[in-house]
Amino acid sequence: MANLPTHHDAIILGAGGAGLMCAAVAGQRGRNVLLIDHADEPGKKILISGGGRCNFTNIGTSPDRYLSQNRHFAKSALSRYTAADFIALVDRHGIDWHEKTLGQLFCDGSARQIVDMLLAECPEQAVTMSFGKAITDISHSDGRYRVEYGGETAFAPSLVIATGGPSIPKMGATGFAYDLARKFGLKIVEPRPALVPLTLGGEETLFRSLSGVSAPVTARCGKTAFREAALFTHKGLSGPAILQISSYWQHGESVEIDFLPDLQSDWLSQAKKQLPRLSLKKAINAHLPTRLTETLIERIALEGELGNLTDKKLDEAARRLSHWRFMPNGTEGFAKAEVTAGGISTAEISSKNMEAGQVPGLYAIGEAVDVTGWLGGYNFQWAWASGHAAGKAI
Ligand code: FDA
Fold it and tell me: Which helix (H) or strand (E) holds 242?
Protein backbone atom coordinates (compact mmCIF):
# COMPACT_ATOMS: atom_id res chain seq x y z
CA MET A 1 0.00 0.00 0.00
CA ALA A 2 1.33 3.46 -0.91
CA ASN A 3 2.36 5.75 1.98
CA LEU A 4 0.02 8.63 2.78
CA PRO A 5 1.26 12.00 1.50
CA THR A 6 2.73 14.31 4.12
CA HIS A 7 2.03 18.04 4.39
CA HIS A 8 4.55 20.67 5.45
CA ASP A 9 5.06 24.42 5.55
CA ALA A 10 8.19 24.04 3.45
CA ILE A 11 10.23 21.38 1.68
CA ILE A 12 13.98 21.98 1.46
CA LEU A 13 15.89 20.05 -1.20
CA GLY A 14 19.54 19.47 -0.23
CA ALA A 15 21.00 19.08 3.24
CA GLY A 16 24.32 20.87 2.69
CA GLY A 17 25.34 23.98 4.62
CA ALA A 18 22.61 26.17 3.12
CA GLY A 19 19.78 23.64 3.44
CA LEU A 20 20.68 22.70 7.03
CA MET A 21 20.87 26.35 8.11
CA CYS A 22 17.55 27.08 6.40
CA ALA A 23 15.86 24.08 8.09
CA ALA A 24 17.24 25.09 11.51
CA VAL A 25 16.07 28.71 11.24
CA ALA A 26 12.62 27.80 9.89
CA GLY A 27 12.23 24.96 12.42
CA GLN A 28 13.07 27.32 15.27
CA ARG A 29 10.27 29.58 14.03
CA GLY A 30 7.92 26.65 14.51
CA ARG A 31 7.60 25.87 10.82
CA ASN A 32 6.98 22.27 9.81
CA VAL A 33 9.87 21.50 7.46
CA LEU A 34 10.83 18.48 5.38
CA LEU A 35 14.54 18.31 4.47
CA ILE A 36 15.37 15.84 1.67
CA ASP A 37 18.80 14.78 0.40
CA HIS A 38 19.65 11.95 -1.95
CA ALA A 39 22.94 11.35 -0.14
CA ASP A 40 22.93 8.91 2.75
CA GLU A 41 24.04 11.59 5.22
CA PRO A 42 23.86 15.41 5.47
CA GLY A 43 26.65 17.92 4.93
CA LYS A 44 29.11 15.75 3.01
CA LYS A 45 30.96 18.79 1.62
CA ILE A 46 31.20 20.27 5.09
CA LEU A 47 32.80 17.03 6.28
CA ILE A 48 35.59 17.13 3.67
CA SER A 49 36.03 20.91 3.75
CA GLY A 50 39.12 22.68 5.00
CA GLY A 51 41.10 19.42 5.04
CA GLY A 52 38.54 17.94 7.48
CA ARG A 53 38.55 20.98 9.78
CA CYS A 54 36.02 23.12 7.86
CA ASN A 55 37.01 26.69 7.15
CA PHE A 56 33.56 27.72 8.32
CA THR A 57 33.74 31.48 7.80
CA ASN A 58 36.02 34.42 7.17
CA ILE A 59 36.14 37.41 9.48
CA GLY A 60 36.91 39.60 6.44
CA THR A 61 33.59 38.69 4.79
CA SER A 62 32.30 41.51 2.63
CA PRO A 63 30.21 41.57 -0.56
CA ASP A 64 33.19 42.54 -2.74
CA ARG A 65 34.66 39.09 -2.07
CA TYR A 66 31.90 37.43 -4.07
CA LEU A 67 31.44 37.05 -7.84
CA SER A 68 27.98 37.37 -9.34
CA GLN A 69 26.40 39.02 -12.37
CA ASN A 70 24.83 41.35 -9.81
CA ARG A 71 27.64 42.31 -7.47
CA HIS A 72 25.19 43.93 -5.04
CA PHE A 73 23.01 40.84 -4.66
CA ALA A 74 24.81 39.19 -1.72
CA LYS A 75 24.88 42.39 0.38
CA SER A 76 21.48 42.03 2.00
CA ALA A 77 21.75 38.43 3.23
CA LEU A 78 25.42 38.83 4.25
CA SER A 79 24.61 41.91 6.32
CA ARG A 80 21.72 40.22 8.12
CA TYR A 81 23.65 37.05 8.99
CA THR A 82 27.32 37.86 9.51
CA ALA A 83 30.51 35.95 10.25
CA ALA A 84 30.11 37.17 13.86
CA ASP A 85 26.66 35.57 14.01
CA PHE A 86 28.05 32.22 12.89
CA ILE A 87 31.00 32.48 15.30
CA ALA A 88 28.51 33.14 18.13
CA LEU A 89 26.65 29.97 17.13
CA VAL A 90 29.86 27.94 17.05
CA ASP A 91 30.80 29.35 20.47
CA ARG A 92 27.37 28.49 21.92
CA HIS A 93 28.02 24.89 20.92
CA GLY A 94 31.43 24.93 22.61
CA ILE A 95 33.32 24.26 19.37
CA ASP A 96 36.92 25.44 19.60
CA TRP A 97 38.33 27.23 16.56
CA HIS A 98 41.35 29.16 15.39
CA GLU A 99 42.25 31.67 12.70
CA LYS A 100 44.68 30.07 10.28
CA THR A 101 45.53 32.93 7.95
CA LEU A 102 43.83 35.86 6.18
CA GLY A 103 40.78 35.78 8.47
CA GLN A 104 40.03 32.10 7.75
CA LEU A 105 38.45 30.35 10.75
CA PHE A 106 38.78 26.58 11.19
CA CYS A 107 37.60 24.08 13.82
CA ASP A 108 40.37 22.96 16.16
CA GLY A 109 38.78 19.52 16.10
CA SER A 110 36.80 18.25 13.15
CA ALA A 111 34.34 19.44 10.49
CA ARG A 112 31.93 16.86 11.89
CA GLN A 113 31.34 19.30 14.78
CA ILE A 114 29.81 21.81 12.36
CA VAL A 115 27.44 19.22 10.86
CA ASP A 116 26.46 18.00 14.35
CA MET A 117 25.88 21.61 15.44
CA LEU A 118 23.58 22.33 12.49
CA LEU A 119 21.65 19.09 13.07
CA ALA A 120 21.30 19.95 16.77
CA GLU A 121 19.92 23.36 15.75
CA CYS A 122 17.06 21.66 13.86
CA PRO A 123 14.22 21.13 16.38
CA GLU A 124 13.11 17.48 16.14
CA GLN A 125 9.40 18.28 16.41
CA ALA A 126 9.60 20.73 13.48
CA VAL A 127 12.17 19.32 11.04
CA THR A 128 11.72 15.91 9.38
CA MET A 129 14.75 14.62 7.49
CA SER A 130 15.03 12.08 4.69
CA PHE A 131 18.39 10.81 3.44
CA GLY A 132 19.32 8.30 0.75
CA LYS A 133 16.12 8.58 -1.25
CA ALA A 134 16.11 9.95 -4.81
CA ILE A 135 13.75 12.76 -5.78
CA THR A 136 11.75 11.46 -8.74
CA ASP A 137 9.27 14.21 -9.52
CA ILE A 138 8.40 17.79 -8.58
CA SER A 139 5.31 19.68 -9.64
CA HIS A 140 3.37 22.78 -8.64
CA SER A 141 -0.36 23.34 -8.71
CA ASP A 142 -3.01 25.12 -6.65
CA GLY A 143 -0.31 27.03 -4.75
CA ARG A 144 1.36 23.85 -3.51
CA TYR A 145 4.57 22.05 -4.47
CA ARG A 146 4.43 18.28 -4.68
CA VAL A 147 7.66 16.32 -4.28
CA GLU A 148 7.95 12.59 -4.99
CA TYR A 149 10.94 10.90 -3.41
CA GLY A 150 11.71 7.24 -2.75
CA GLY A 151 8.06 6.23 -3.10
CA GLU A 152 6.86 9.02 -0.76
CA THR A 153 4.86 12.13 -1.60
CA ALA A 154 5.09 15.46 0.21
CA PHE A 155 3.24 18.75 -0.25
CA ALA A 156 4.14 22.28 0.84
CA PRO A 157 3.43 25.86 -0.23
CA SER A 158 7.18 26.62 -0.17
CA LEU A 159 10.02 24.78 -1.89
CA VAL A 160 13.68 25.65 -1.32
CA ILE A 161 16.34 24.66 -3.86
CA ALA A 162 19.51 24.01 -1.85
CA THR A 163 21.11 21.25 -3.90
CA GLY A 164 24.34 23.15 -4.62
CA GLY A 165 26.30 23.11 -7.88
CA PRO A 166 27.93 20.37 -9.95
CA SER A 167 31.45 20.67 -8.50
CA ILE A 168 32.91 17.34 -7.30
CA PRO A 169 30.27 15.07 -8.90
CA LYS A 170 31.81 11.99 -7.27
CA MET A 171 30.45 13.33 -3.96
CA GLY A 172 26.88 13.38 -5.24
CA ALA A 173 26.94 16.95 -6.58
CA THR A 174 24.57 17.45 -9.50
CA GLY A 175 23.12 20.08 -11.82
CA PHE A 176 19.71 19.27 -10.33
CA ALA A 177 19.20 22.82 -9.06
CA TYR A 178 19.52 24.22 -12.58
CA ASP A 179 17.18 21.64 -14.13
CA LEU A 180 14.59 22.40 -11.48
CA ALA A 181 15.01 26.17 -11.79
CA ARG A 182 14.65 25.93 -15.60
CA LYS A 183 11.53 23.83 -15.17
CA PHE A 184 9.99 26.76 -13.29
CA GLY A 185 11.19 29.25 -15.90
CA LEU A 186 14.17 30.72 -14.02
CA LYS A 187 17.26 31.79 -15.94
CA ILE A 188 20.66 30.22 -15.35
CA VAL A 189 23.98 32.04 -15.61
CA GLU A 190 26.27 29.59 -17.45
CA PRO A 191 27.86 27.47 -14.68
CA ARG A 192 31.64 27.09 -14.78
CA PRO A 193 34.24 25.53 -12.49
CA ALA A 194 35.74 28.02 -10.00
CA LEU A 195 38.44 27.81 -7.32
CA VAL A 196 39.97 25.23 -9.65
CA PRO A 197 43.52 24.39 -10.82
CA LEU A 198 44.48 25.70 -14.27
CA THR A 199 46.05 23.50 -16.93
CA LEU A 200 49.00 24.38 -19.15
CA GLY A 201 49.72 23.06 -22.65
CA GLY A 202 51.94 23.79 -25.63
CA GLU A 203 55.34 25.27 -24.76
CA GLU A 204 54.23 25.75 -21.17
CA THR A 205 54.07 21.98 -20.53
CA LEU A 206 57.73 22.57 -19.67
CA PHE A 207 56.55 23.89 -16.31
CA ARG A 208 54.88 20.58 -15.50
CA SER A 209 58.32 19.22 -14.62
CA LEU A 210 58.17 21.57 -11.61
CA SER A 211 55.28 19.56 -10.13
CA GLY A 212 55.32 20.03 -6.35
CA VAL A 213 57.28 23.32 -6.38
CA SER A 214 55.52 26.29 -4.78
CA ALA A 215 56.32 29.97 -4.29
CA PRO A 216 54.60 33.02 -2.79
CA VAL A 217 53.47 35.11 -5.77
CA THR A 218 50.97 37.66 -6.93
CA ALA A 219 48.62 36.15 -9.53
CA ARG A 220 46.77 38.64 -11.71
CA CYS A 221 43.96 38.35 -14.26
CA GLY A 222 42.61 41.60 -15.65
CA LYS A 223 42.20 44.01 -12.74
CA THR A 224 42.05 41.29 -10.07
CA ALA A 225 45.12 40.12 -8.17
CA PHE A 226 45.78 37.74 -5.29
CA ARG A 227 48.94 37.55 -3.28
CA GLU A 228 49.28 34.00 -1.99
CA ALA A 229 51.16 30.80 -2.83
CA ALA A 230 51.17 29.25 -6.31
CA LEU A 231 51.93 25.57 -6.81
CA PHE A 232 53.09 23.83 -9.97
CA THR A 233 51.31 20.53 -10.65
CA HIS A 234 51.75 17.76 -13.20
CA LYS A 235 48.89 19.37 -15.15
CA GLY A 236 49.65 23.06 -14.68
CA LEU A 237 49.09 25.53 -11.86
CA SER A 238 47.35 25.35 -8.50
CA GLY A 239 47.77 26.69 -4.93
CA PRO A 240 45.63 29.38 -3.29
CA ALA A 241 46.71 32.25 -5.58
CA ILE A 242 45.78 30.26 -8.68
CA LEU A 243 42.53 28.86 -7.27
CA GLN A 244 41.48 32.41 -6.41
CA ILE A 245 42.36 33.85 -9.80
CA SER A 246 40.74 30.88 -11.61
CA SER A 247 37.30 32.22 -10.60
CA TYR A 248 38.03 35.38 -12.62
CA TRP A 249 39.80 33.69 -15.54
CA GLN A 250 38.08 33.09 -18.87
CA HIS A 251 39.27 30.90 -21.75
CA GLY A 252 41.70 32.79 -23.97
CA GLU A 253 42.95 35.08 -21.19
CA SER A 254 46.43 35.05 -19.73
CA VAL A 255 47.30 34.85 -16.04
CA GLU A 256 50.19 37.04 -14.99
CA ILE A 257 52.43 35.87 -12.18
CA ASP A 258 54.74 38.14 -10.22
CA PHE A 259 57.29 35.67 -8.87
CA LEU A 260 59.02 38.38 -6.85
CA PRO A 261 56.25 40.61 -5.49
CA ASP A 262 58.48 42.04 -2.73
CA LEU A 263 61.24 43.31 -5.00
CA GLN A 264 61.62 46.60 -6.88
CA SER A 265 61.71 46.57 -10.69
CA ASP A 266 65.46 47.42 -10.70
CA TRP A 267 66.47 44.93 -8.00
CA LEU A 268 68.83 43.02 -10.29
CA SER A 269 70.70 46.11 -11.54
CA GLN A 270 70.89 47.33 -7.92
CA ALA A 271 72.23 43.92 -6.82
CA LYS A 272 74.88 44.20 -9.55
CA LYS A 273 76.26 47.34 -7.86
CA GLN A 274 76.73 45.50 -4.56
CA LEU A 275 77.69 42.04 -5.86
CA PRO A 276 78.99 42.18 -9.46
CA ARG A 277 80.51 38.68 -9.24
CA LEU A 278 77.20 37.10 -8.23
CA SER A 279 75.68 34.91 -10.93
CA LEU A 280 72.19 35.75 -12.20
CA LYS A 281 71.10 32.27 -11.18
CA LYS A 282 72.27 32.72 -7.58
CA ALA A 283 70.67 36.17 -7.39
CA ILE A 284 67.27 34.73 -8.38
CA ASN A 285 67.77 31.54 -6.39
CA ALA A 286 68.14 33.67 -3.25
CA HIS A 287 64.39 34.37 -3.61
CA LEU A 288 62.96 31.38 -5.46
CA PRO A 289 63.26 27.56 -5.25
CA THR A 290 66.15 26.11 -7.26
CA ARG A 291 64.09 24.12 -9.79
CA LEU A 292 61.87 27.11 -10.48
CA THR A 293 64.91 29.38 -10.83
CA GLU A 294 66.49 27.01 -13.35
CA THR A 295 63.34 26.80 -15.47
CA LEU A 296 62.79 30.56 -15.46
CA ILE A 297 66.44 31.28 -16.33
CA GLU A 298 66.26 28.81 -19.20
CA ARG A 299 63.24 30.66 -20.57
CA ILE A 300 64.78 34.10 -20.06
CA ALA A 301 67.88 32.82 -21.88
CA LEU A 302 70.28 34.98 -19.89
CA GLU A 303 73.18 33.84 -17.72
CA GLY A 304 76.51 34.84 -16.27
CA GLU A 305 77.71 37.19 -13.56
CA LEU A 306 75.62 40.28 -12.88
CA GLY A 307 78.65 42.50 -13.53
CA ASN A 308 78.90 41.16 -17.09
CA LEU A 309 75.27 41.94 -17.92
CA THR A 310 73.95 45.37 -18.86
CA ASP A 311 71.48 47.17 -16.57
CA LYS A 312 69.01 47.12 -19.44
CA LYS A 313 69.20 43.33 -19.72
CA LEU A 314 68.95 42.92 -15.95
CA ASP A 315 65.96 45.23 -15.68
CA GLU A 316 64.32 43.37 -18.55
CA ALA A 317 64.94 40.03 -16.76
CA ALA A 318 63.47 41.48 -13.53
CA ARG A 319 60.46 42.71 -15.48
CA ARG A 320 59.83 39.27 -16.96
CA LEU A 321 60.04 37.64 -13.53
CA SER A 322 57.42 40.09 -12.24
CA HIS A 323 55.13 39.85 -15.26
CA TRP A 324 55.34 36.19 -16.23
CA ARG A 325 52.46 35.41 -18.55
CA PHE A 326 50.93 31.98 -18.59
CA MET A 327 48.25 31.09 -21.16
CA PRO A 328 46.25 28.33 -19.44
CA ASN A 329 44.49 26.07 -21.94
CA GLY A 330 41.73 25.17 -19.48
CA THR A 331 40.91 24.15 -15.93
CA GLU A 332 40.79 20.77 -14.22
CA GLY A 333 37.00 21.06 -14.49
CA PHE A 334 34.10 20.37 -12.13
CA ALA A 335 35.84 17.18 -10.94
CA LYS A 336 38.43 19.34 -9.13
CA ALA A 337 36.56 22.64 -8.65
CA GLU A 338 35.90 23.67 -5.06
CA VAL A 339 32.82 25.60 -6.18
CA THR A 340 30.72 26.42 -9.21
CA ALA A 341 30.54 29.99 -10.48
CA GLY A 342 27.29 30.99 -12.18
CA GLY A 343 24.01 29.24 -11.40
CA ILE A 344 20.45 30.42 -10.81
CA SER A 345 20.36 34.04 -11.93
CA THR A 346 20.14 36.59 -9.13
CA ALA A 347 17.86 38.61 -11.43
CA GLU A 348 15.21 35.97 -10.70
CA ILE A 349 15.30 36.03 -6.90
CA SER A 350 14.85 38.49 -4.08
CA SER A 351 18.09 39.42 -2.32
CA LYS A 352 16.06 39.87 0.91
CA ASN A 353 14.49 36.44 1.25
CA MET A 354 15.78 34.44 -1.76
CA GLU A 355 12.30 33.87 -3.19
CA ALA A 356 11.79 33.74 -6.96
CA GLY A 357 9.72 36.77 -7.86
CA GLN A 358 7.88 35.06 -10.72
CA VAL A 359 7.27 31.77 -8.91
CA PRO A 360 5.78 32.43 -5.46
CA GLY A 361 6.93 29.98 -2.81
CA LEU A 362 10.05 28.89 -4.74
CA TYR A 363 13.36 29.79 -3.08
CA ALA A 364 17.00 29.20 -4.05
CA ILE A 365 19.98 29.38 -1.68
CA GLY A 366 23.68 28.51 -1.36
CA GLU A 367 25.92 27.50 -4.21
CA ALA A 368 22.95 26.85 -6.53
CA VAL A 369 22.64 30.63 -6.88
CA ASP A 370 24.93 32.80 -9.01
CA VAL A 371 27.00 33.95 -6.01
CA THR A 372 30.54 32.60 -5.63
CA GLY A 373 32.92 33.50 -2.85
CA TRP A 374 36.67 33.70 -2.69
CA LEU A 375 38.64 30.84 -1.20
CA GLY A 376 38.82 30.98 2.60
CA GLY A 377 35.43 30.41 4.27
CA TYR A 378 33.47 32.87 2.11
CA ASN A 379 31.40 30.17 0.42
CA PHE A 380 30.18 28.69 3.67
CA GLN A 381 29.35 32.17 4.94
CA TRP A 382 27.18 32.62 1.84
CA ALA A 383 25.54 29.22 2.49
CA TRP A 384 24.77 30.24 6.11
CA ALA A 385 23.58 33.75 5.21
CA SER A 386 21.37 32.78 2.27
CA GLY A 387 20.01 29.78 4.20
CA HIS A 388 19.23 32.07 7.11
CA ALA A 389 17.46 34.61 4.87
CA ALA A 390 15.19 31.95 3.36
CA GLY A 391 14.71 30.22 6.72
CA LYS A 392 13.24 33.45 8.09
CA ALA A 393 10.82 33.69 5.18
CA ILE A 394 9.44 30.21 4.50
P1 FDA B 1 26.21 21.58 -0.93
O2 FDA B 1 26.82 21.08 -2.19
O3 FDA B 1 27.04 21.61 0.30
O4 FDA B 1 24.91 20.78 -0.58
C5 FDA B 1 23.99 20.37 -1.55
C6 FDA B 1 23.28 19.14 -1.06
O7 FDA B 1 22.30 18.79 -2.03
C8 FDA B 1 24.19 17.94 -0.90
O9 FDA B 1 24.02 17.39 0.37
C10 FDA B 1 23.77 16.99 -2.02
O11 FDA B 1 23.85 15.63 -1.64
C12 FDA B 1 22.32 17.39 -2.25
N13 FDA B 1 21.85 17.12 -3.60
C14 FDA B 1 22.47 17.39 -4.76
N15 FDA B 1 21.71 16.96 -5.79
C16 FDA B 1 20.59 16.42 -5.25
C17 FDA B 1 19.45 15.79 -5.81
N18 FDA B 1 19.32 15.63 -7.13
N19 FDA B 1 18.50 15.33 -4.95
C20 FDA B 1 18.64 15.49 -3.61
N21 FDA B 1 19.71 16.05 -3.03
C22 FDA B 1 20.67 16.52 -3.86
N23 FDA B 1 33.87 26.48 1.41
C24 FDA B 1 34.25 27.19 2.48
O25 FDA B 1 33.69 28.25 2.74
N26 FDA B 1 35.25 26.72 3.31
C27 FDA B 1 35.90 25.53 3.07
O28 FDA B 1 36.74 25.09 3.85
C29 FDA B 1 35.54 24.81 1.90
N30 FDA B 1 36.19 23.65 1.56
C31 FDA B 1 35.79 22.93 0.48
C32 FDA B 1 36.47 21.76 0.14
C33 FDA B 1 36.06 21.02 -0.95
C34 FDA B 1 36.83 19.77 -1.32
C35 FDA B 1 34.93 21.43 -1.72
C36 FDA B 1 34.43 20.62 -2.87
C37 FDA B 1 34.27 22.61 -1.39
C38 FDA B 1 34.70 23.38 -0.30
N39 FDA B 1 34.06 24.58 0.02
C40 FDA B 1 34.48 25.30 1.11
C41 FDA B 1 32.88 25.05 -0.73
C42 FDA B 1 31.62 24.66 0.06
O43 FDA B 1 31.69 23.28 0.37
C44 FDA B 1 30.35 24.95 -0.73
O45 FDA B 1 30.35 26.29 -1.18
C46 FDA B 1 29.14 24.73 0.15
O47 FDA B 1 29.13 23.38 0.59
C48 FDA B 1 27.84 25.02 -0.60
O49 FDA B 1 26.77 24.70 0.26
P50 FDA B 1 25.35 24.30 -0.34
O51 FDA B 1 24.53 23.87 0.82
O52 FDA B 1 24.86 25.37 -1.23
O53 FDA B 1 25.64 23.05 -1.30
Answer: helix 240-246
Confidence at residue 104, expressed as pLDDT on a 0 to 100 scale: 98
Torsion of CA 335, 48, 212, 299, to 10 degrees: 50
Domains and CATH numbers, the chain: 6-193+338-393 (3.50.50.60), 198-331 (2.40.30.10)
Give the pLDDT confidence of 361-379 residue by residue, as tens digits. Answer: 999 999 999 999 999 999 9
Ligand 1 contacts CB of residue 63 (under 6 A): no
Q: Is 164 in the pocket of ligand 1 (CB under 6 A)?
A: yes
Question: Ligand 1 centre from 46 Cα, in Å?
Answer: 7
pLDDT confidence of residue 1? 56
**What is the whole-number distance in angstroms between the Cα of residue 173 and the centre of ligand 1?**
7
Question: Which residue did the predictor score with more confidence, 41 or 2?
Answer: 41
Instruction: Give the count of beta carbons closer than 10 Å to the beta carbon of residue 178.
Output: 22
Other residues' Cβ atoms within 10 Å of the Cβ of residue 170? 6
2 pLDDT more than 80: no
In angstroms, the CA 184 to CA 348 distance is 11
User: What is the C-alpha to C-alpha distance for residues 67 and 83, in angstroms, rounded to an integer?
Assistant: 18
